[in-house]
Amino acid sequence: MELRFLGGASEIGSLGLVIRDQGRTVLCDYGMTPTDPPAYPIPAPTNVDLAVLSHAHLDHSGMTPILSRLPHARLAATPVTLAVADLLTRDGLKVARLNGYLPAYTPHDIAALHARAVAVDRHGTFRHQGIEVEFTPAGHIPGASMMLYRGERDVLFTGDLQTHATHLVGGAEPLECDVLVMESTYAGREHPDRQETERRFRDRVAATIERGGKVIVPAFAVGRAQEVLMALAASGFETYLDGMARAVNSVYLSAPEYLADGKRFRRALEGVHVVEHPGDRKRALREAEVIVTTGGMLDGGPVLYYIG
Question: What's the domain range around 22?
Answer without folding.
Answer: 2-181
